[in-house]
Structure formats: C-alpha cells, structure tokens
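Replying to the earlier thread about multi-chain prediction with a worked example.

Input:
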Amino acid sequence: MMAALRCVIYRDVLLAVRRSSDVMTVLLFFVIVVSLFPLGVGPDPALLRTIAPGVIWVAALLASMLALHRIFASDHSDGALEQMLLGVTPLGMIVGAKVVAHWLVSGLPLVLISPVLALQFDFPQQFLWTLILSLALGTPVLSLIGAIGAALTLGLRGGGALLSLLVLPLYVPVLVIGAGAAEAAVSGLGGQAQLLLLGALLAFAAAFAPWAAAVALRISTE
Amino acid sequence: MGKKAGTPSLEAVDLHCTRGERKLFGALNFTLHGGGLLRIGGVNGSGKTSLLRIACGLLEPTRGEVRWAGENIRRLQEEFWRQLVYVGHANAIKDDLTAAENLYVACTLAGTRVEPARIGEALRSLGLAGCENLPARVLSQGQRRRVALARLALSEAMPLWILDEPFAALDAAAIDCVQRLVIEHVSRGGAAMLTTHLEAQIAAAATLRIDLEGN
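Result:
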C-alpha cells in the first residue's frame, strides 16, 4: 500500500515537473498580485506593513484556487482515475497522496517565496517566521478542502465557477485565522493561538477531507 | 458457485441499467466461471460499456447485483478489485510519462509488484520494442492502446479480466497478440469478459455470448 501511495505522489510531482508551465502560472499569479499592491496603494511603509499579511494570504488563497481543478481533471479525462477507483489501495488514501503531491507543487512554492514578497511591504523581519509558518500550515488546509470541491464538480461543464462558490465559504475561516496570525504577532499579541488553531484545522482536514473527496469521486464518476 | 475451485465465479443477478431516461438493458443474468470467456456484443449505445462498468463496480446498477464468489461486489470493494484487471475505453496513459513509467504506475496501483525487467519484456511482447522510454505523447493511438494492454502480460495472477473494446485501434499483429494473451489466461482457469465488434477467433472452453439489443 505504501508503494502505491509513494508511486502516486512521485507520479504527480513528476507530471508537474514535466509540465512546469502549470506550476509557474500559479506561482507567477501569486507574485504578480502581491507585487501590484505596493504599486497601487502607494509607498506608505506604515500602511504597507499593516496590510502585508492580509494581502499575502488573499493572494495565496486565490492562487491555490487557480490550481484546484487540476487535482483530478486530467486523471478523469484519460481514465487514470478509474484505475485508481479500482485499485487495491483505499481511495481515501490515494486522494490523500494526490493532495500531498498537489500541495508540493502548488502550495509549497508559495510558502517558500512569501518571505521575499513580504520584504516589498517592509514587513518586520522578526515576525517573518510567523507568516511563513501560518502559510505552511494553512495552504495544505486549502488544498484538502479544495480537493472535496474538485471531486464534487468533476466532469461538470462550468465546474470552475461552481468550485469557487463551493470552497470559498470554507476557505474564509482559514484566511481569517491565517492572516490573523501574522497580524497578531506584529501588534505584539503573539500569533501562537492562531498558529495552533491552524494546526488543529490542518489535523482535522487531513483526517476527514480525503475520505469526503473519495466519496464525492465515486459519485461523480458513476 | 464456480465449478472450478481455483477461480471464483462472477454472477450477474437480474441486472437492470437505466441511464437518464433511457433503459439500456433489463433482467440480465449470467454466470461467468473460471476458464470461461464472456463476449458482449451489440450495436453502439446498447450499453456494453455500462455493463462492464457495472461488472467492475464503477457503476451502480439500477436494480440487481453483481456477485463475486457469491458476495455482492459493492460490499467486497478492494477485496474484489485485488483480483480484477480492468482495461477501459480510456487508456489511462499519461502523455508526459514514458511507456515504461505508465505501465509501472498502472501495475503499482493495481497492487502488482513488477520488476523493471518484466516491464520491458511485457512492452516488447506487444511489439513496443524501442518505445519503452519514449514519452507517450509521441506514440500513436494504437501504440498507446498496446501500452495499456501490456498490463495483461503482467497480470497472470489476476483471476478476472474485464476488457472494454481491447482490439480498438490495434493492427492485426497486435490483435493476435492480445487474443493469445486472453486465450492463455482463460486456459489457465481465469475468467475474461470483453466487448468487441470483431468476430474474434478466441476459442475458449466455455464461451458465453450476450448480445445487447439496444432500443
């Protein structure tokens, strides 16, 4: 079973690497959106410092939503998904492996580049770790919740818009808590509480989201 | 129950299938024992693929059930799929992976452990020598079908093969090769179920034939 999970993660990462334009689109979108804000808002350091966590988090959320439909779409159209449904490994675990691979190629790059982008906002460097940590804990939650939405809207025409509508309400708590972590740290309250909440959300989503997505996949492939 | 002790039998009991408003087939019964071959015929749109998808457990029948060794397959789930090879209408081939990588992924998902040497061997046996390390993107439609079917050469241990139009897009040599694989499988005591438009010359000990009328 571990062999199958490793194989799925390896396969999906390999596919993303061989078709790197998809990965770059997400990353570029994130960089562009975040970089446009200082230009649009104006060069007031105090204001930029205040809005930095919110802007970075909103951009990360939108960027991860941009990549969501790809989790299952190509496997669905070329029949690979049917083989996963008929595999010997429980489907929930396969979905979990696919989400891990998806996060590695669409979430992790955002986390890694965020400190560079934060510099544009003159974000206090001693709190950079809180920001990075909040993204590192939060973006996997976005991928996990998104997998449920992607599975539910699989094969629907115009599924993209429906997908956004489905997952956005579930993304809001993650956004509020995630952006709140860095804001609380900057204002001197410490962001530990928010980080712990994000960790709890991640544990909860990791335990339940893959199984919910698996059930949704079985329904949408019938 | 199956006549052969080795391979359990696949039983369809009073299967009905309705897709949308259209009734595809109803009151369908058959039993496929080990060593048997079931050929599904019928015009386009008569429900052949739906029947195969029901038999694998991908699709829920409107009424009736499919049993493997006397148990409903929707209850058995992974236990049934462990013994099943399904090659569907779609090839499940990734454009950006090589032929060998595609075959390795397909086998690993199905829970078959294979040595890299055997993967090359299987591909070569289907006439894909020299294509092992080419990305599937550059392969022709028939070659992709061969890659998907090369899995059969590595699935001797699986008792049930369900193949949807295995001969589509294949040339005469490849059709021969796939027929030989199916005959070998059936003579080993395995069961096979397939749809085809070709009058295939597969002579199995027990060949069943179902023709769906369509309406």
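The first strand of chain B starts at residue 10 and ends at 19.

Feel free to reuse this layout for your own posts.
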